[in-house]
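DM from R.C. (forwarded with permission)

"hey, sorry to bug you on a friday — could you get me a structure for this? deadline for the figure draft is monday and I only need the backbone to look sensible"
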Amino acid sequence: MPSDKKLLSLVNMTTVLNSELNIYQLLPLIMLYSKDVLRAEASSLLLLDEKKEYLYCEVAMGEKGDIIQQYLRLPLGSGIAGWVASHRKSLLIRDACEDSRFNPEYDKKSGFRTKSLICVPLFVKDKLIGTLEVLNHLDGGAFEQDDLEILSVLADSAAVAIENARLTEGLRKRVLELSLLYEFEQILLTRASLSDISDWLLHKTLEHMEAKSGTIYRFNEETKVLTILAARGIPKEEQAKILVQAGKGIAGWVAQNRQPLLVPNLELDPRYDKNAQFKFESNSLISAPIISKERLLGVISINDKYSGYAFTPHDLTILETIAGRLASTLSNYELFQTVTMDRQEKKRAADLMKQLLPETIPQRNGLKIRTGYFPLQNIGGDFYQIYSIEPELTGILLADVTGHGISAAILSIMIHTILQSYALDLFREPGRLLTILNADLHNRMRDNFVTVFYALIDTQKNSITFANGGHSAALVVRNNNAHNVEELTAKGKLLGFLPSLVFEQSETVFEPGDRLFLYTDGLLELAYDTRSCLLTEPSLRSILSETAEDYSSDLPKTILEKVKQNCPHAFFDDDISILIVDRHDR
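My reply, with the result:
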């Protein structure tokens, strides 16, 4: 049985561990306690990655063992810790060299000689989160059964403390992440240069990731070379000289393969250029590609954690999120630069404006979606988005900025950027979505405004939930019968004009055979040289009746032509967008 002194130490340690919520202070404490109480030469704690594919070592205690163990990645089933994790059983080994599960390679690399060891799994209820290990008894002898029992009790307390600390740390990082992304979206609306925006984002990212150095690279599609947009840890005067070929080094590998990368130990990674002019203080690094619509725009890399620990898979996930926002920034920055150029560049601007619209229309279960976009001057203020929220939930958003041409396009880009910053869950609540969007647009529209109609289609409940911000009411044609048409009405003023507006949220049925018809008001407002021609609602319903059996992809264009026929010799005087959603059996 364990001695009273050891049991008392165990009780004291349990109290301390469960009062410490900082993960970076907690892990060394666990190592120190396990090492001291069991009078061991070294100890290590390996955590299971989120995908449960391997163990990684955040911290290790010992004279030489921590050199290699600090950045160790161990596949499940490999070595002693890997065996313990995969079998979910504890091991007490009196002579490591006599055990076939022991891998001597780590001793060779570190210079540490393992003799006796204990390794126990870390559980929170039935969930495995890692392993805890002590190596070599200080008196030179082997560990005994009493030592295994003590380490097992310590592991139980340590696992709960680690999980609590992770939850606290995860919440803290999530709050910081949301704060960072919100600030980022705000600075995008300023007139800062791309260099200033990149420098600001890198500074904030390093602050958030608690790291010292990092680099944002811009990719040149013609030369296949990465150049530095912003950097910390590289002298300013040297940054312009650094050119990274795709496929060379860590950043080049990320660019060529378009995959995020977590490197626990650069010295052991063959992709790392050991002759690089500028060395990092820490051996761990994370890097992510910056990609917009399958186009590589650059790479972002972060290194040198202040804590000295390796980056974690969670850190890489956060960096991927930041890279996604940066991709949107680089893409939109190109768009902003283009739409303010002279008339010779307007065709290119029109092509870039089309990037606001979905490249392909997703074919959702139980729905057939067709769209038509007809800008008046090649560059318009209309745009639409389709949000794939869940297999049964599809969001349809149609917006119309007042006016047309470059000024309307710039406002459309701004609104599109704001919508991109919203979490997907917000698109489950149409009324709340428009309320928040209106608040974000207030005082930014410069005497302009935007109308928005948003519909959430639920093919499981056979319903449409919708909200309207001053837009033309959508129509639902019931069972392909234009004589049975429902106008989707919900109270709501145009967006961007008044603060603190609340938008009504309504719901209607949407069953197989029904058709949802959304449009911008340019469809109904035609003009002659001296007067206007407003298409009446009965005329529109008649057109919908004539096209009720038309399921072709050209249906939006067909409807446009029929509207023209109702007003001979007239012409359209505004941008036009049409969205048609047919509900059918799955």
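R.C.: lifesaver. The chain has a mean pLDDT of 80.
me: no worries. The first helix runs from residue 4 to 17.
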